[in-house]
Amino acid sequence: MESTGAWTAPPQVPAPARRGAAAAALRGLLARAADIAVGCVMAAMWLVNATSAALVAAKRVLGKDSRAATAAEQLFVAALCAAALLLYVAAFLLLWCVSNGGRQAEAREDKFGSGGQRRRSESTGSACILDVVGPVTKHILIFLSMLILLGLLMQGLAPEKESCEGRVGLMLADIGSFHYSVMFCFVVCPKFATLLWASAP
Questions:
Q1: Mean pLDDT on 111-120
Q2: CA 140 to CA 187: how far, in whole Å?
Q3: Which pTM does this prediction carry?
Q4: Average pLDDT for residues 118-147, to the nearest whole number?
Q5: Torsional sign, CA 192, 195, 198, 201
Q6: What pLDDT is attached to residue 122?
Q7: Where are the domains of the chain?
Q8: Sign of the C-alpha dihedral, residues 129, 134, 137, 139?
Q9: What is the spatial distance between Cα 169 and Cα 84, in angstroms, rounded to a whole number?
Q10: Which of 170, 130, 179 is nearest to 151 (CA)?
Q11: Which of 194, 200, 189 is nearest to 42 (CA)?
Q12: Dihedral, CA atoms, 98, 101, 102, 107, nearest 10 degrees?
C-alpha cells in the first residue's frame, strides 16, 4: 500500500538564530586566539629575558666584542621585536574580548539581576596579575628594577663613560638586569604558564 503522506521540508533555522550562532562561534574563536597570543607573548618575553641574561654574561665573561656577545645581542634584538609585535596583537584581541565580555555581562545582569555582577567580579579577581607574582617576588622585581634605573642614571650622569661612576653604574645595571631576567625566566613565567594552563577550557 502506497503512502499518501505529503513530503515536508526540514524546518528552516531562523536567520537571527544563524547570526547568533555565527557570532558565538566567532567570539569563541577570538577568545581562543587571545589565549594563544598571551601565551606567545609570555614565550617571547621569556626569550627576551633569556637572551638579555646571556648577553650580560657573555659581555662580562668573554668581553663585549666577542662573538658570543654579538650573537646574544642579535638574538636579543630579534626577540624584542617579536615580543613587541605579539604584544600589539595580544592587546588588540584582549581589548576586544574584554569589551565584548563586558557587554555580555551587562546583558546577563539586566536579565538575571545582581548575581551576574557578583560572578563577574569573582572571576575578574581570580585572574588578577598579582596572583601570578607573589608579594615576595614582586618586591624583589621592584628592587631589581630600581637597581637597573640607578645604574642607568649613574651612567647618564657620569662625566666620562670610563669614569668610576660610569663603571659602577654599568655594573649595577648589569647585576640588576641579569637577576631580573633570571627571576622572570624561572619564577614569573612558570607561574603564569601554570595559571594559564589551569584556566584553559
A1: 44
A2: 11
A3: 0.65
A4: 66
A5: negative
A6: 39
A7: 23-127, 128-201
A8: positive
A9: 27
A10: 170
A11: 189
A12: 170
CB-based contact 132:192 (threshold 8 Å): yes
**Cβ–Cβ under 8 Å, residues 166 and 160:** yes
Q: CA geometry: angle at 173 spanning 128 and 140, to 5°? A: 35
Residues in the chain: 201
Closest residue by Cα to residue 35 from 83, 97, 78: 97
User: Given the C-alpha cell 567570539, which residue does it identify?
Assistant: 27
* Predicted confidence (pLDDT) per residue in 67-83, tens digit: 989 999 999 999 888 88
Task: Please tell me the distance from the alpha carbon of residue 100 to that of residue 124, in angstroms, as a whole number.
Answer: 14
C-alpha cell at position 41: 607573548
CB atoms closer than 10 angstroms to residue 126: 10
| H or E element at residue 102 | helix 67-112
